[in-house]
Design goal:
With 161 residues, the chain is mainly beta. It is built from 1 helix and 12 strands; from the N terminus they run E-E-E-E-E-E-H-E-E-E-E-E-E. The chain has an 8-stranded antiparallel β-sheet with strand order 1-12-11-10-9-8-7-6, with no helix packed on it. A 4-stranded antiparallel β-sheet has the order 2-3-4-5, with no helix packed on it.
Length: 161
């Protein structure tokens, strides 16, 4: 994991609960990840405490079972308290891309997600490198808050789910 321009750090999979992977670092930063997306954080200066979105998986997108037109996502934070920040989100498939993780080449499909809140002037791009066979997200660059730098995650070993 890399947060902004900081050094890379290692996170360990602490647990798996109802499809949510709970990752923790040595300095007690915690990410809850569902289907490759960070849906909750702890230990940061502006934690994401809730993420509400139409449920979909990248596998559903790859199988053509999810409409990629724009939709709304709601974010809630702890400091400062902000509940239900409405954003407009759109996703597009950018095509195949090979990535290297620990010296091993992986074929992925790159998805780009545009998240925008016009009132705050927040417009970011999230990227997800997805296994085309399983829908598993191997790498991502995500923006979870207007007050935090982007978070880059690379999974080196797929958890047994």
């Amino acid at each position: 994991v890399t947060i902004g321009k900081g050094p890379s750090g290692l996170m360990i999979l602490e647990s798996l609960n109802e499809g949510k992977l709970i990752w923790v670092s040595a300095d007690n930063v915690l990410f809850v990840v569902k289907e490759g997306r960070i849906i909750r954080t702890s230990g940061l200066s502006n934690n994401l405490i809730a993420y509400e979105s139409p449920f979909y998986t990248f596998r559903q997108i790859l199988e053509g079972n999810f409409n990629l037109d724009s939709f709304n996502v709601y974010y809630s934070y702890d400091k400062p308290q902000l509940y239900g920040l409405k954003t407009e989100v759109s996703i597009k498939e950018l095509g195949k891309q090979n990535i290297k993780i620990l010296g091993k080449d992986r074929e992925t499909i790159l998805f780009e997600e545009i998240v925008e809140n016009q009132y705050l002037g927040w417009k970011v791009k999230n990227r997800f490198w997805v296994d085309p066979q399983t829908g598993f997200v191997w790498r991502s660059i995500q923006n979870v808050s207007p007050k935090l730098p982007q978070i880059e995650m690379t999974i080196t070993k797929k958890p047994t789910i």
